[in-house]
Write a structure and sequence with these properties.
The chain has helices spanning 63-74, 76-81, 94-104, 117-121, 163-170; strands at residues 33-36, 41-43, 51-56, 84-90, 110-112, 125-130, 133-138, 141-145, 151-156. With 173 residues, the protein is of the alpha+beta class. It has a single domain (27-170), classed as Glutaredoxin (3-Layer(aba) Sandwich), CATH 3.40.30. It has a 7-stranded mixed beta sheet. Strand 1 (33-36) and strand 2 form a beta hairpin. The longest helix has 12 residues, at 63-74. The protein starts with 32 loop residues before the first strand and ends with a helix.
């Protein structure tokens, strides 16, 4: 798989450059490898032949991220029937991911992306504003990836409660 590369012009980064590459329907998902909450290496290629719901969330155990993760957990039996694997990604460390998983009985891989490289590849890292301040962080995003690694649906700035319904909509469910 050919990874998507985000470039900086002349080694600088201004407001225009902060717009990361975004994925859209039909694009090849970038290949990646991250560590999950159990310390196990997980690669997107491990799921070849299955659909994958890949979603990015800002911080484990916050209200929106908990709502999003629990909605994915609650769709587990339906996802199993549809042969969809779920992968959550955040900049949190492995220990924080493990606590999040245990606290909410999520039982699907939560991947640690502390240097946000995978988030950048997917366009899920960008400028955010809170209380009048600008900073870089995770843009809550989700992607439905088909069995061959192609994007079936991409949602940026998705509301936590819409992650599962939007994925199901693409599948006609």
């Amino acid at each position: 798989m050919k990874p998507i590369v985000c470039r900086r012009i002349n080694g600088t980064q201004d407001k225009e450059d902060q717009k990361m590459a975004t994925l859209k329907k039909g694009d090849q998902a970038p290949s990646f490898s991250l560590v999950d909450q159990e310390g196990k290496e997980v690669k997107l290629s491990d799921f070849k032949g299955k659909k994958v719901l890949l979603y990015f969330y800002p911080k484990a155990n916050t209200s929106g991220c908990t709502k999003q993760a629990c909605s994915v957990r609650d769709a587990r039996s339906e996802f199993q029937h549809l042969e969809i694997a779920a992968l959550g990604v955040s900049p949190d460390g492995v220990d924080a991911q493990k606590k999040f998983d245990r606290k909410h009985s999520l039982a699907f891989p939560l991947l640690s992306d502390p240097d946000h490289k995978v988030a950048e590849l997917c366009g899920a890292w960008g400028e955010k504003k809170m209380y009048g301040k600008s900073f870089m962080g995770i843009v809550r995003s989700s992607f439905l990836i088909d069995e061959t690694g192609k994007i079936m649906g991409a949602w940026y700035k998705i509301k936590p409660e819409n992650t599962v319904p939007e994925a199901k909509k693409v599948l006609g469910k």
